[in-house]
Design brief:
- The protein is of the alpha/beta class and about 350 residues long.
- The chain folds into two domains: about 150 residues, 3-Layer(aba) Sandwich (Rossmann fold), CATH 3.40.50.2300; about 160 residues, Response regulator (Rossmann fold), CATH 3.40.50.2300.
- The protein is built from eleven helices and twelve strands.
- Strands 2-1-3-4-5-11 form a six-stranded parallel β-sheet, with helices on both faces. Strands 7-6-8-9-10-12 form a six-stranded mixed β-sheet, with helices on both faces.
- Helix 2 packs parallel to helix 10.
- The longest helix has about 35 residues.
- The radius of gyration is 27 Å and the shape is elongated.
- It binds beta-D-galactofuranose.
- The site of beta-D-galactofuranose (GZL) has 14 residues, from helix 2 and strand 9.
């Protein structure tokens, strides 16, 4: 009986204690999970031996940006030996800073940053450096006094892109016999503070400054978006009735600007009243170059993921890397854009 009772007694204890113990185990396990915010602790099994890369992408404002993101996701796959943690900051620098701090907390192996603007990064980049995590800039650059705060940049030479636009306009006007005529120009600028916008503005302005007869009537930010490009171009058209050239710092703003110009009753392109100079050379814009709607498109190559992976592989093997790597870029006009080039454009 005693034994039985003991058993009964035990079973009663078990019946009471066991659920309590189970409850405590679940709570502790779960609670621990809550404390460490499970989503921030990616599961990377040791035997995978993957390189963990935290990518802070600035947003998804344009077709170009989408292609840039896709190039990252295509490069940093498990098959290629990576574990990718990707964050889209939706155009906000504070979101990028938060993401970088999360990456540091998760002890990633590398941080890739496409900075929405070029200033305000010293503190968080110092935190990454103190944590011993190399930072690679993607696409755009940062303005920091201490260049050791990032290991390398894989991107585009936006000042050279701006210069290319100016040199093209020089040649175009010369061919038209208009080198000495007064030329009225308006500029749709990308995101305020973005190195791509600053570089293209500086590059074009340097060439424009060599021509007293080039009048830059106004330059306004239009955030690299279709909507804002149309809005700002409409304002320009209300203010000025003698615009000869639009310099639009990306194709998305160009699409909006062309819509506004046509709605105003004016014409664009090689046979139009207003000459269109654009940047990026995305698929749909190249089709407009081929048909003569856009006069020239200065290419900006978003396929940077594979180049960044190459830099990481060099670092992993202990090799020195360059501070800056610029991707290949061309300039497209009606004369050199072919259907093959357009068909081959995957963005
Ligand atoms: C250029 C890149 C710019 C593109 C835009 O390097 O930063 O941002 O020109 C994109 O299309 O939004």
């Amino acid at each position: 009986m005693k034994k039985y009772m003991a058993n009964v007694h035990m079973s009663r204890i078990t019946m009471v204690l066991l659920p309590a113990i189970l409850f405590m185990m679940v709570m502790m396990g779960w609670g621990f999970g809550l404390l460490t915010n499970i989503e921030e602790e990616p599961y990377i099994s040791e035997e995978d031996n993957l390189i963990v890369v935290g990518v802070s992408q600035l947003g998804s404002e344009s077709g170009w940006r989408t292609a840039n993101t896709e190039s990252v996701q295509k490069a940093f796959t498990k098959q290629n030996g990576y574990f990718l943690i990707f964050n889209n900051a939706r155009q906000k620098q504070e979101n990028q800073i938060k993401a970088i701090r999360n990456f540091i907390a998760q002890r990633v192996d590398y941080i890739v940053l496409a900075p929405v603007v070029e200033s305000g990064w010293e503190t968080v980049l110092q935190e990454a450096k103190d944590a011993g995590i190399p930072v690679i800039m993607m696409d755009r650059s940062v303005d920091v006094a201490d260049q050791s705060l990032y290991t390398a940049l894989v991107g585009t030479d936006s000042v050279e892109e701006g210069r290319k636009a100016g040199r093209w306009l020089e040649e175009y006007l010369a061919k038209k016999g208009k080198s000495d005529e007064d030329i009225n120009i308006v500029v749709l600028k990308g995101t305020e503070g973005a190195s791509a916008q600053i570089g293209r503005t500086v590059g074009f302005s340097v060439v424009a400054g060599e021509h007293d007869n080039w009048n830059i009537l106004e330059q306004e930010y239009a955030d690299f978006t279709i909507y804002k490009g149309k809005e700002v171009m409409s304002e320009f058209l209300e203010k000025y009735d003698d615009i000869d050239v639009v310099v639009s710092q990306n194709d998305d703003m160009t699409f909006g600007a062309i819509e506004a110009i046509r709605e105003s009753g004016k014409t664009v392109g090689v046979n139009g009243e207003i000459t269109i100079i654009s940047f990026d050379a995305v698929h749909d814009a190249l089709e407009m170059v081929a048909e003569g709607t856009i006069n020239v498109d200065i290419e900006c190559n978003p396929h940077q993921g594979e180049y960044i992976s190459d830099v990481i592989r060099l670092l992993e093997s202990g090799q020195e890397v360059e501070k800056r790597y610029y991707v290949e870029e061309d300039i497209f006009t009606m004369e050199n854009v072919t259907q093959d080039i357009i068909n081959g454009r995957d963005y």
